[in-house]
């Protein structure tokens, strides 16, 4: 509202009008939503340009040093890029799989550790290109494991194939049957930034929930949402560590194992 520099149209001076507005503002209670009031500050929120791959406990790619000329995990603008080639092979599995991953969460030089019974929230934005396919064998683009025992994967985000239909699925991978608890068609979520939000409580009978949003920001539509209790995700006397990237079997159809990549940005994690 415009106020005349000399006098308000109603005969009230500008100073009086501003004083009235200020008093009214002070008298009006500010109500915070329960979520806004209770949301803990992120313990982990790396800046790719500043932190680089030091935001993670380590990088796992080309561990057999077969392709020293290739870049696998690196910063590209405001995000992390993970590259993988069809002829890559990991040192595990007898040559039947490939891996370009990062592991863990590091803030100010210290690893953040998810212990049994703790509730953690992890979110990030992700870009899945059309060259990264759902497969008939495993393709994990997120997994949780226990470092000291190499236990797991416990909870995963997978790109799967059901005939001609490709899916993105949050799964209790270590539970019998590796059940999915949040699932969406993959194709509508490709070639754009989407958001993944996890709530994880490690334990022998832990809990996991996942929300996948078709876009970015809190108002982006939900493509998949679900949760499950009784999830096997034990720290086994150590801690549960998240991993991101592409970890897949090459036993799927060759048409699904292409040179490809995966992008991540805006990682955040909080406890409680």
From TrEMBL:
<feature type="signal peptide">
    <location>
        <begin position="1"/>
        <end position="38"/>
    </location>
</feature>
<dbReference type="InterPro" id="IPR006311">
    <property type="entry name" value="TAT_signal"/>
</dbReference>
<keyword id="KW-0732">Signal</keyword>
<protein>
    <recommendedName>
        <fullName>Polysaccharide lyase-like protein</fullName>
    </recommendedName>
</protein>
<feature type="region of interest" description="Disordered">
    <location>
        <begin position="44"/>
        <end position="63"/>
    </location>
</feature>
């Amino acid at each position: 509202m415009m106020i005349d520099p000399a006098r308000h149209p109603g005969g009230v001076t500008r100073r009086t009008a501003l004083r009235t507005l200020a008093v009214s503002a002070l008298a009006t209670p500010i109500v915070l939503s329960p979520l806004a009031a209770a949301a803990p500050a992120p313990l982990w929120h790396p800046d790719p340009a500043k932190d680089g791959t030091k935001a993670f406990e380590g990088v796992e790619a080309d561990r057999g040093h077969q392709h020293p000329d290739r870049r696998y995990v690196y910063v590209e603008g405001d995000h992390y890029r993970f590259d993988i080639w069809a002829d890559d092979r990991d040192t595990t599995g007898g040559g039947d799989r490939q891996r370009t991953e990062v592991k863990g969460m590091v803030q100010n030089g210290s690893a953040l550790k998810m212990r049994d019974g703790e509730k953690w929230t992890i979110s990030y934005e992700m870009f899945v290109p059309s060259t990264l396919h759902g497969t008939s064998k495993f393709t994990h683009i997120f997994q949780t494991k226990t470092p000291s025992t190499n236990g797991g994967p416990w909870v995963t985000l997978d790109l799967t194939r059901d005939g001609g239909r490709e899916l993105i699925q949050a799964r209790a991978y270590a539970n019998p049957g590796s059940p999915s608890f949040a699932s969406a068609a993959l194709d509508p979520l490709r070639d754009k930034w989407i958001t993944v939000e996890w709530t994880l409580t490690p334990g022998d009978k832990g809990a996991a929930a996942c929300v996948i949003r078709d876009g970015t920001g809190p108002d982006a539509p939900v493509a998949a949402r679900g949760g499950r209790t009784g999830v096997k995700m034990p720290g086994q006397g150590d801690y549960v560590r998240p991993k991101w990237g592409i970890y897949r079997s090459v036993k799927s159809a060759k048409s699904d194992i292409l040179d490809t990549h995966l992008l991540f940005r805006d990682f955040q994690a909080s406890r409680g």
